[in-house]
UniProtKB/TrEMBL annotation:
Domain YbaK/aminoacyl-tRNA synthetase-associated, first and last residues per copy: 23-141
CDD domains reported for this sequence: YbaK_like
The protein's name: Ala-tRNA(Pro) deacylase
Enzyme Commission number, as recorded: 3.1.1.-
One Pfam family, short name: tRNA_edit
InterPro entries attached to this UniProt entry: YbaK/aa-tRNA-synt-asso_dom_sf, YbaK/aa-tRNA-synth-assoc-dom
Alphabetical UniProt keywords: Hydrolase
A GO MF term: aminoacyl-tRNA deacylase activity
Class of the enzyme per the UniProt entry, highest EC level: hydrolase
Organism: Paraburkholderia atlantica
Record carries keyword Transcription regulation: no
Length: 164
């Protein structure tokens, strides 16, 4: 699979400037940062959460983990991680686990971790496990313009900036 058609259309419609970065196949965001030789703090990962009212996406650096208690207080919802089966159903044009951060284009409320918004440039999954999209910060923030910025994540123990 190549770039997600939903992502491709979103990038086109917003006039985004970006480059595609190919890397060896990887299974996790930490592996992806290492394989692509990029700082983990600049690689955006998407975490999908759900409750009885539906799905919410959290976009954060690959070196961070969502703090559910902080996320609950920001959203007023008791969200839990969505299952892999649900991810496949919602993101049919993406490989499992390779969801781009543009969840607004899939009809989901999206939250952007503030620490990611402060990076000079950002990388993120293109919809498969072998390509990343690389954008300057201003382009990424314009693409994520409908996402709500908030602080809801913390760096995982034992991970520095994640520079590979």
């Amino acid at each position: 699979m190549a770039m997600s058609p939903t992502l491709q259309e979103c990038l086109r419609s917003k006039g985004s400037r970006y480059e595609v970065v190919r890397h060896p196949y990887s299974h996790s965001s930490i592996e992806t940062a290492a394989a692509a030789h990029i700082p983990g703090d600049r690689l955006a990962k998407t975490v999908l959460l759900e409750d009885e009212h539906g799905y919410v996406a959290a976009v954060l650096p690959s070196t961070y983990a969502v703090q559910l208690s902080e996320f609950w207080s920001k959203t007023g919802r008791r969200l839990a991680l969505a299952t892999e089966v649900e991810l496949r159903e919602l993101f049919k044009d993406c490989d499992a686990g390779a969801v781009p951060p543009i969840c607004m284009a899939y009809g989901m409320k999206t939250y952007l971790e503030s620490s990611l918004a402060g990076q000079p440039d950002v990388y993120f999954e293109a919809g498969d496990h072998e390509e990343l999209i690389h954008m300057e910060a201003d382009q990424f923030l314009a693409l994520m313009g409908d996402a709500e910025r908030a602080h809801f994540a913390r760096r995982m123990r034992g991970l520095g900036s994640g520079r590979a």
